[in-house]
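Section 4.2 – Deliverable D4.2 (structural model, holo form)

The reporting period included a commitment to supply a predicted holo structure for the target in complex with hypoxanthine. Inputs used:
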Amino acid sequence: MLAIIGGSGLCNIKGLEIIRREIVKTPYGQPSEPLIFGNLGGKEVIFLARHGANHTLAPHHINYRANIWALQSVGVKSIISIASVGSIEKSIKVGDFVIPHQIIDYTYGRNNTFFDGIDNPVKHIDFTYPYDMSLREIIIQSVQKLTYNFVTEGVYAATQGPRLETAAEIDRYEKDGATIVGMTAMPEAVLARELNLSYVAICPVANHAAGRGESAEGISSAMLNHSSEQTIKNTIDILVHLVKTHGY
Ligand code: HPA
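Output (structure tokens):
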């Protein structure tokens, strides 16, 4: 079964016919909200709003372990994460969709493993390629039929937040090789890998990163918090297309 984890601006999916909600108890506490079992484009999917139904959870307060554990416990095998980002690389424009292939993790103090030697024995999982490469390929093939602007590679700098970055931090991330910046890819991606779930991300670009382009003088919160109606509509369109054409 496929799960969609929705990020900022995507606390619910228009067009998702809700079948039921399930509160899942986990050894790690509560997920961001009850899991929503629904029907999207004729296919059963599970939806989870990462920041909670009313967007009340800051990125560093999200219980990533509970979210991923809950999804696995109800039979999810694949996850598409929707996570809005700022663009670092000049060629990546606001409104584009990036399908990242790599992550650099700058977060700290988050519960970032199931294998911490307390609940489970220590285990060093392979994370060379943080996103599921075959699911990425399927998604890339599938979205090429759509007219939205997809960037089919990206290095996601995962920052701690909730504040936005300084211009110098963005310069540093760029030197490190990052092309986009967001706050939620980690530890979500690694926890999915630890539980053997296929995990990919589609990242709508909400803004230019701090100090870049239209954000040269600052980033307006209006721009960030309200992914434009159009971007949300396009994201849902992409998801419907994906579930219809691939029936995970
Ligand atoms: N920085 C961090 N996270 C973000 C940004 C950003 O510029 N835009 C959307 N999420």
